[in-house]
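Per-residue structure
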Amino acid sequence: MRRILCVGRNYAAHRREMGGDDREPPFFFAKPADAVRAAGSRLPFPSVTTNLHHEVELVVALGSGGVDIPADEALTRVFGYAVGVDLTRRDLQSAAKEKGQPWESSKAFDASAPMGPIRPWSGAPPQGRIALRVNGAPRQDAYLSDMIWSVPDIIAQASRLWALEAGDLIFTGTPEGVGPLNPGDEVSCDIQSVGSLAFSLDSRS
């Protein structure tokens, strides 16, 4: 993998959940490639937070890239899809937003992007159910078809901002139901037709 781009607030219900305006467009932020951890991992609970949140997402893995890719050609760049979770230090993010400061420390920390195996894919992107459970209890449950920006639109827009290449990963946003995680929690996620992801959180580091 080369880098991780993430789409923020790409589901209307999550945007409202986070206090956003329905008229606001989705936006991008980034995580380092070494934030990825494989399914089945036991992750250290991140330092300097008392409010760690889960955000399950469809991940697009690019097999090729380009600049200014037309939306109607974007799917030809897709290698496959995976289940991912954007872990977020929500308290650090909120404090940074209040001060108008960057919030990389809330998103781009070590092991902040657990991800399942990539399923090779061609044709129309998946549109099924996306769900996350914590210790077996449902937290997030929605459909990929609820996304504001579609996968082709996301790739096209990203290629206007960056020169995309093979190995880039794009986290496409999370539905409503984000919430806190605690040390010792067991997290399991599924996206219909794509796959699953499970990981656990160790004690605080």
In short: The CA atoms of residues 3 and 33 lie 5 Å apart. The mean pLDDT is 94.
